[in-house]
Design a protein that fits this description.
about 675 residues, alpha+beta, Alpha-Beta Plaits, 5-stranded antiparallel beta sheet, 4-stranded antiparallel beta sheet, 18 strands, about 15% strand, flat, Gly-tRNA-synth_heterodimer, Gly-tRNA-synth_bsu, nucleotide-binding, ligase, Glycine--tRNA ligase beta subunit
């Protein structure tokens, strides 16, 4: 007969962003604990509020599964002496298994006899196992932890109570000085402490004390209430899922309401208004049916609708105070010019080891000038890019961004337009931060994309120049995200950028102080960028062996690497893919025997040819064009019959040194083309 088990951790209010992750982790760790302890169950339900993390294990077995164990001990020659007496090793083995040496028997394993003991273990009662659930509670990890009282124990917030029930029976679980019982706490203001008589009544008992413990149910209530407000007022409300999740984890008994603010504040850029409402106050903003921002907001109260008018007035007062500040900053910021703000950047550090933000913009201007030519931007795009590179950080020293840091770039775009910059320049100022997350949106304009790459390249090479290099999970300057952003933008716009050529240009042309050695970690930067190409290829679903082949090749142009990987992935199912790879692989492997590498002046002497296949290979290789990955693959694949004939007719390592080197030269030249497809030895063809 199965039962249901309830375990609730009662805490002080947790930060909203940890609640869902923590209860998920709680359930996962509980599942692992039960399986490791041979306790079967049907499923685990999760409940959570800001003040509690709860699991409800349905259909839990009454006891552990019985097991028969055959334990292996020392070899026979160690277990017994020459007279057949049990040694201390054998006695210790038996004692460790709770048995005696008389229970030992021998079996042969790989030609050696070993001591074994066969024993039967009866499963313990589930209550005994569940009394150790404190191990699960303590194992939960959090992004931040705190101590309380005189304890060394750390947790997300102080634990105040525990409930541990197997149906109606209490199962004692203890943490610090808190022993579990059946008493839980209702809503902080509306409810009272309540006794859970039966684990199966948990949800309803708490609901009677104004706690909706089911997070999914709370979320649906909030969504339904917002929908009703929108319908009643003919509004369009963007229910952002992240904000809904956050608000849901701030309340135990939700009541949704709406408030208003003066229309005059709509003159402030709507991004500022939305930030004030959404990010600062956790409100949902409102639009009318024409899509324009309306002077209303939607809030969620942790309580019932009693005295809701007072709640609305209080929230309106708080929001208006923030909007007053925003209005003041918006007007004050416009009293200065962009040039004034750029001048102030001379005193703002980008990083103390690297220099000021003003110096960073100067470097980015130089990088942008190079990229404009590399990416073949037209004259207007180039002009806008260079202008943007001269000013793109100016909004960092405005009052608005000082108050609302999350608006950097956004306010730069707004102020740039107001102060007479072209739309392309203004847009690039906002877009240079993109993507703001690993898979975030990319710049929509070429100017913004080029500026984003230039800015990220500067960050990458300057941080590496002063040895501030990501290691393990440590990446305080988000260089992985920035490098991945470069790769994604290059892929999106199909812009070619050879990493070695770029670094050669930077070393030769970028104006940097002596303390910045741009050549110091050049190889490490290339490897770092190639790892980001790997990341993108994995995201695209490219086979692991193909990713390894491309990443290990001679090409260090992200776009060329991506193109080759996609071509190989496309052709991997071809009927002749295996034989093509084998033929090309023979050239790759044998070319390694040459004591010389590829160079442009490497030439083959026709007078040393002994067989027609040598001429055929030379002629066919000379026709191969490596400008396009698809064409390159097809042309190299078409060489297979010629390659097979070449190896059938010729001994590469001929006794005649001149003939041998001539043939190796042919292979080195061919391998130079093949290398554009990566290290083909890593391709799995079985």
């Amino acid at each position: 007969m199965t039962k249901n088990y309830l375990l609730e951790i009662g805490l002080e209010e947790m930060p909203a962003h940890v609640v869902t992750k923590s209860v998920n982790q709680f359930a996962q760790r509980a599942e692992k604990f039960l399986k490791e302890n041979r306790i079967s169950f049907d499923s685990i339900e999760k409940f959570s509020t800001p003040r509690r993390l709860t699991i409800f294990v349905k259909g839990i077995a009454e006891k552990q599964t019985d097991i028969d164990v055959k334990a292996k001990g020392p070899s026979k020659k160690i277990a017994q002496d020459a007279d057949g007496n049990w040694t201390k090793a054998a006695q210790g083995f038996a004692r460790g298994q709770g048995m005696t040496p008389d229970d030992i028997f021998f079996e042969e394993l790989k030609g050696v006899e070993y001591a074994y003991i066969q024993k039967h273990e009866d499963g313990q009662k589930v209550e005994t196992v569940l009394s150790h659930m404190d191990e699960v509670i303590k194992a939960i990890t959090f992004p931040t932890r705190m101590r309380w009282g005189s304890y060394d124990f750390e947790y997300i917030r102080p634990i105040h109570w525990l409930v541990s029930l197997l149906d109606t029976e209490e199962v004692p679980v203890k943490i610090l000085d808190i022993t579990s019982g059946r008493m839980t706490r209702g809503h902080r203001f509306l409810g009272e402490d309540v006794e859970i008589d039966d684990a199966n009544n948990y949800v309803e008992k708490l609901k009677s004390q104004f706690v909706i413990v089911d997070a999914k149910e709370r979320k649906q209530i909030i969504s339904d209430q917002i929908s009703k407000i929108a319908t009643d007022n003919n509004w369009d409300i963007d229910v952002d899922p992240d904000l809904l999740e956050e608000v849901n984890n701030l309340v135990e008994f939700p009541t949704t309401f709406y408030g208003s603010f003066d229309k005059k504040y709509l003159e402030i850029p709507e991004e500022v208004l939305i930030t004030s409402m959404k990010d600062n106050q956790r409100y949902f903003y409102v639009r009318d049916q024409a899509g324009k921002l309306a002077p209303y907001f939607i809030g969620v109260r942790n309580g019932n609708s009693e005295h809701i008018e007072n709640v609305i007035r209080g929230n309106e007062k708080v929001l208006v105070a923030r909007l007053e500040d925003a209005d003041f900053f918006f007007k004050e910021d416009q009293k200065k010019s962009i040039a004034d703000y750029v001048e102030k950047l001379k005193t703002v550090n980008f990083h103390v080891k690297i220099g000021t933000m003003y110096e960073k913009m100067a470097r980015v201007h130089q990088i942008a000038e190079h990229l404009a030519k590399l990416f073949k931007l037209d004259a207007t795009e180039t002009k806008d890019l260079l202008r943007a590179s001269d000013i793109y950080k100016f909004d960092l020293v405005t009052s608005m961004v000082d108050e609302f840091p999350e608006l950097q770039g956004v306010m730069g775009e707004k102020y740039a337009e107001i102060m007479g910059e072209t739309k392309a320049v203004a847009q690039a100022i906002r877009e240079h931060y993109m993507p703001i997350s690993a898979e975030g949106a990319l710049p929509a304009s070429k100017v913004g994309a080029a500026l984003a790459i230039a800015d990220k390249i500067d960050s990458l090479v300057t941080f590496y120049a002063v040895d501030l290099i990501p290691s393990g999970s440590n990446d305080p300057y988000a260089l992985r995200r920035q490098a991945y952003g470069i790769v994604r933008i290059l892929d999106h716009y199909q812009w070619s950028m050879n990493l070695e050529d770029l670094q050669d240009y930077l070393k030769a042309n970028l104006t940097v102080p002596a303390k910045l050695d741009l050549g110091k970690n050049e190889k490490a930067i290339n490897e770092f960028m190639i790892d980001r190409v790997r990341q993108l290829l994995n995201q695209k679903g490219i086979r692991n062996d193909i990713v390894d082949a491309v990443a290990s090749g001679s090409n260090v142009d992200p776009i060329a690497m991506i193109d080759v990987a996609e071509v190989l992935q496309k052709h991997v199912a071809d009927d002749d893919f295996k034989v093509v790879m084998e033929a090309l692989g023979r050239i790759v492997n044998l070319s390694k025997k040459a004591k010389f590498g590829y160079s442009d002046d490497l030439s083959v002497d026709d007078n040393l040819f002994e067989n027609p296949s040598e001429s055929q290979l030379k002629e066919q290789v000379a026709k191969v064009n490596d400008d396009n990955a698809e064409d390159l693959f097809k042309q190299l694949a078409a060489l297979r019959p010629v390659i097979d004939s070449y190896f059938d007719e010729n001994m590469i390592m001929a006794k005649d040194e001149k003939v041998k080197n001539n043939r190796l030269t042919q292979l080195v030249i061919a391998n130079h083309l093949i290398a554009n497809l990566g290290d083909l030895s890593k391709i799995v063809t079985k």
